[in-house]
Structure formats: structure tokens, C-alpha cells
Amino acid sequence: MHEGLANRYYPSVSSINFHTKEVSVKIVYYGPGLCGKTTSLQTIYGSLPADKRPQLVSLATEVDRTIFFDFLPLVAYRIRDFLVRLQLYTVPGQVFYNATRKLVLNGVDGLVFVADSQRAMTDSNLESLQNLEENLTELGLEEGRVPMVLQYNKRDLVDIHSIAEMEALYNPRRLPSFATVAVKGEGLYEALKSVSQAVISDLIKKGVGRELSGPSAEAKAPGPSDTQAPSPPRSVEEAMSQAAQPPLGAPSVLPAASGSGLWPLGDAARLGERIEAALRAMHWNDVVGLVEQLVEQQARRWAASEGASSNNPVPSFLLMRGVPAARYRSLAEAGRLVRAGQAVGRNEALSALVVALESLW
Fold first, then answer.
1. How far apart (Å, rounded) are the C-alpha atoms in residues 110 and 13?
2. Is the domain 3-255 a CATH 3.40.50.300 member?
3. Residue 27: is its pLDDT beyond 70?
4. Nearest to 51 by CA among 360, 272, 265, 259
5. Rg (CA), the chain
6. Does pTM top 0.90 for this prediction?
């Protein structure tokens, strides 16, 4: 396996697509195995209207329910006239998938740490927190640089720590924290709203609002019109009904507008299904090859629609879709190895999948 391809850090600030007027931000749910990360995404997903749901991708084995990651794209905020698309991921909880954890953390904009409230899980929670800090450091991120909230999950079980005990154990930085019951949806939306607002505020502080308005625009500090919102809705459905036409900066939770599935219709859907099948079968070389086919197909379709002429429209297409150049180079290198008859590993395949997802969403 060529670990170096997956261990490179692809820095934020987010990806800005001026062509589609979208800002994509990546929020990662982190925590020990079976703490409720995947359940959190599944519950959020399940509360969306059935006819407007994007596809939740969850790739699992008997060893770990989320061996790769879950990906749930939601359009949730605006910065000026740009939609902010939330991309929700989880990491595998098992320690021996740490390379995959680092891959998913690449380009992270916000973090939700999910701690299991059970007393028996104390060591696992602390180990996962330590692992998160180590991985962020390895990726070149200082502690406190990434907006983060904590979910104290499984509050409905017995033999659990009190909230005060959880705060003392896991929250020395006094980050926003939320008592949650992921299977019931309790506290999930408040936690997601808190971290997403923190990310938007962070983006504006870094000058994204100014960048979106052009070089002549005045710098605009975060304020009520940019990051604040009414009290959180009781459900995603309520948020949707309240915000059919969201004002600039006000939050809504809307499904991605590109369709109900992860892959577009037609040939892309067929390739997407083959990519997922290859991932589940752990045929890593096939994944890379199929992703290259999908990206080239979409690039040529884009070039034809734009009247662009190029023997290789892929780099320009991915640039327009907001995919970082480093990520494209990683895919190109993996593709070169595959065509040379060399075996690539899980990390190369996952990195390729990320390119496919980002190029489509």
C-alpha cells in the first residue's frame, strides 16, 4: 500500500465553487467504536422527507459497522448568495483502521466528537480523544484550530456518567456539549447546528465572505445576519418547512438538490454502483479504475456543455467542482500505479472515492 498518498493533508478553507455558487464544508463525526456515530447520521438521514433524501453511504464489515465512512450531503446555510453544503462523514472506531481515520480527517472543517456515556467506555473515549489529537497534529492542525462540539451519547442507558462527570473527563477546553440519544434523535440537531454555525463563523473570520463578494468588498465580521439563527427546530422536517427560501446566513436543513441518490442518473449511476460493489469486495484497483472512468465521463460531459475543447478536461472540470489539486494528483498517481499493474490499497481507493463524491456534490 502507498500510505503516503492518503496521509497527505488537504487543507481547508473548504472548497469554493464559483460555477455552482456553492461552498462545501466537511464535518466529521469522531469517536470510539459503536459509540453512536453512524446511528447519528442514520437518524438525521431518516428524518428527512423520503422523496428528498440524498443517499447515505455506509460501508461495513462484521468487525466494524463503519469501516470506511458515511457521507450525507446536506445544504444547510448561505454565505451571501452562496449555498453552504454540509458533507457529514464518520470515521471507523476500531484502532487498526487509523489510516482510514486520517484519510477522512483530510480537509476537515468541523468535528463532532461522540462519547459513549457508559462508565465502561471511559478508557475507549479517552483513547479516541487522544487519537484524534494525534491525528490532527500529524495532519498539521493545532489543537483548537478546527471548530468542534461534543455529543454525550446514550443518555438513556444505565450505569452512565453524569454530565458533570463527562465534562470533567472529556471537555477540558469547555467546548459546546450536548446530551444525546442518537437512536431517538435527541440532541442531534442541536449539536449539528452548533458545529455548523461554528464552521460558518470560522469561514467568515478567515475571509470567505469577503472572497465570495470579490476583492472590492468590505470585510464583514460574523454577525447575526451571517451566523445566528432562531432557536433550533425540533426536527429536520420542521427546519425544512420553516426555510423553503432561506435568507442569507440563516440556517435551514435542506436535502441536496442534485437528486435523491448519491450518483446522478444514467451512466454515472451504473458506474457508481460498480464502485460501491468494488469497495465492499475490497477490490481496490477496480475502485480506482472505475472512479477515473466516472470522473472522465463527467468531465467530458461538462466540457461539451461549456463548449470547452481539451484532450484532457479532467483537471479543469475538477477545478470548477472545487476539488483540491492535491487530491486530483493523488487520484492520478493511483491510476498510474493501477495501469502499470501494481496493487494499490484501501487508502488509495478511499481517496479516489472522495474525489468522485466531491466532483459530483
1. 11
2. yes
3. yes
4. 259
5. 20
6. no
